Amino acid sequence: MAKFVIAGRADCPYYAKTELLADYLQKNLPDFRIHKITQRPEVWEDWLKDVCEKNKWSHKNSPIIWRELLDRGGKGLLLGGYNEFLEHAQLYYDVTSSMTTELMKVIAQENLGTHIEKEQEEEALKTCINTLQVWITSASAPACYNLIPILTSGEVFGMQTEISITLFDNKQAEEHLKSLVMETQDLVSPVLRSVSICTTVEEAFRQAQVIVVLDDTTDKEVFTLEDCLRSRVPLCRLYGYLIEKNADESVRVIVGGKTFVNLKTVLLMRYAPRIAHNIIAVALGVEGEAKAVLARKLKTTPSYIKDVIIWGNISGNNYVDLRKTKVYRYESAIWGPLHYSRPLLNLIFDSEWVKREFVATLKNLTATGRQFRGILAAHSIATTLKYWYHGSPPGEIVSLGILSEGQFGIPEGIVFSMPVKFENGTWVVLTDLKDIEISEQIMTRMTSDLIQEKLVALGDKIHFQPYQSEHKDLVPDEEKDLITSDTDFQNLSPQTTFEKPHKTVEP
């Protein structure tokens, strides 16, 4: 059997004549088969060049015809162009073409119109399928391994939305990423259209609609807090440039991790100003750990505890506010329906435990980095994305790191964790909450470190000087329901084999 491939520019008259002759041969010869390929005029030359380079052919005009040798695995044998095909037809089949030049031109224009209509139909079909392009940076990180099964379960974006996942990391991680691709495909998820890897910087975030930024590693030694802060700038600048250049206009960027989350978020906003309003930092990891510690104390389930507010630096100097926290389904002498709740602070009678042991436990978790390990980090990111797309539970307070616009007296221009609710594909800051004022001293302590991190990272300040409180109490009396969670420099720094901090700076 002879199988010929006829490829040409969609508006080429010679392609039209070749096509008509090939159709005649296929109709009248039982062992003659053809396959047609057309390309738009503006992409034809590049397409032809790629085909010739791949097959080591030399051909420059439209059309190009080759024969596929089916008995040799489909290997292509170049026949040539229009003249060579006519000679072949006349020599082997005693058939020639008598199409006039005018008719050739008319059919060529019809071919171009048909090609454009076909492309439009294919694009419309893709739109109906609604494939969401999801990119994950630093995809070799443990959090990515735990995040993929959640994203592909349909719980985050919905069962009606198919997703394509691209795993982005450096070239050294390529083999690990290939294994991760195979494991992801083994899930046989009905919402997963495709999963691929990218290790080429220039191609990063191509058509991305969702970007998950995980913790990055650095290949240079960092010995001081100031160097550690400044080392975040180059990658954020690169990501910002690539997002602006390659990503979809409506892209949503979510920043997670255990190191300088607020700083990385504000830097991405600086270097990707076009989509700065769609960049957020995940605070649910800290919130989840606080709820778990409280649940162990009350001997209840963490999911029964709602409205814990995380203020400030997500991966550093933050405060856990329990003044609005409620407990549902609590086993006690007082019972009510499922929607009945009680204030948490009315159920914990040991105020010293709240101010001392609870604080120490959270600080220890931060120091070991436990609250940002793979499972919790992945779940926090996925839950935040779910709220972003489908809204948070009605009436529930969610903590989120966003750019301050002066709410609650927070200085503008820093990323700060604060209470929000998600609705209609965005978030709303809950500025109407009552009795959540924070003292000037505590607010200054939270904002001072964040402002200095930004200034030092950008080179506007040489040395980082942690805020020094005049009060020695861990929690001031007027803020006894705000829980301090500090982090020192060594715990803020990415724990990689390359970074070796030689001093500790108390925030």
TrEMBL record:
Residues 485-498 have a biased composition (Polar residues). GO terms for biological process: malate metabolic process; tricarboxylic acid cycle. Keywords: NAD, Oxidoreductase, Tricarboxylic acid cycle. CDD domains: MDH_like (cd05295). One of its GO terms (molecular function) is oxidoreductase activity, acting on the CH-OH group of donors, NAD or NADP as acceptor. Residues 290-450 form the Lactate/malate dehydrogenase C-terminal domain. Coiled coil: none annotated. Residues 485-507 are annotated as: Disordered. Belongs to the LDH/MDH superfamily. MDH type 2 family. This is Putative malate dehydrogenase 1B. It comes from Aotus nancymaae (Ma's night monkey).
